[in-house]
Amino acid sequence: MGTEGKEELIPRAAAAAGFETTISRRKFLILTACAVNGLAALSIRGAWGADAPVIIIENAKGLILADPTRCVGCRRCELACTEFNDGRSQPSLARIKVDRNINFGPGGLTSPVMGGAWGNGVFIQDTCKQCPHPVPCETACPEGAIKADPVTGARVVDAVVCVGCRLCRKACPWDMISFDEESQKATKCFLCHGSPKCVEACPSGAIAYVPWLDLTREVPPRVSVLTVVPAEKAQSCLECHISK
Questions:
Q1: CA angle (229, 86, 138) in 5-degree steps
Q2: Would you give the DSSP letter of residue 26?
Q3: pLDDT, tens only, 17-29
Q4: Do residues 204 and 70 touch, judged by C-beta distance below 8 A?
Q5: In the chain, beta strands by DSSP E
Q6: Over 74-103, what HEC string results?
Q7: How far apart are CA 96 and CA 126, in angstroms?
Q8: Per DSSP, which regions of 103-144 are E strands?
Q9: What is the pLDDT of residue 199?
């Protein structure tokens, strides 16, 4: 390219980018930065290959939203959950968990939602947050037993594949994975295929099935977690996640 061609290059690039023909130093730097970013993107694409798959994991279509101010503590929701999913009335297995907001003694805080020094006694309904990707329990499962329900998109435990290692339970920041000691299988809320029985059973309208929204940034975690991602899952994640 001759001298004349080089002199015309910047004005032509500026016009293509929407700048006026005569550009300032600042705008020239902006244009240059855009070019560098474009080249970086091309380099990344080349590194991963033009045919590298783009994996998009959808969120659940809905979730169960709780209103503690309306809960009367009857725990019918827990009974409805286990009767539908487990064929028996056993609140300890319920995917929704109801308890009073009480701080027992100066040494322990039993709920992150405190009201007063000893708690306010309000009933709190803990529900699965239907976490966005990467879903902690799904990621932690070494057997791939936690999958998306085809109807609701909520993650559900496949009892046939589950080996009862409880790693999913340790990975959930809100301690919402239940474990059946009888069957030695983990369970979690999958929204009852789009018709949550807990919502239907609530006499006071304290829980509702609503379109999905991300609550993971709004509700403080209940427990500290340390998730170990299986090597094969970590490798597959490289298809759409690039470490910085």
A1: 15
A2: H
A3: 455 545 555 555 5
A4: yes
A5: 62-66, 97-102, 119-126, 146-148, 155-157, 178-180, 185-187, 207-211
A6: CCHHHHHHHHHHHCCCCHHHCCCEEEEEEC
A7: 6
A8: 119-126
A9: 97
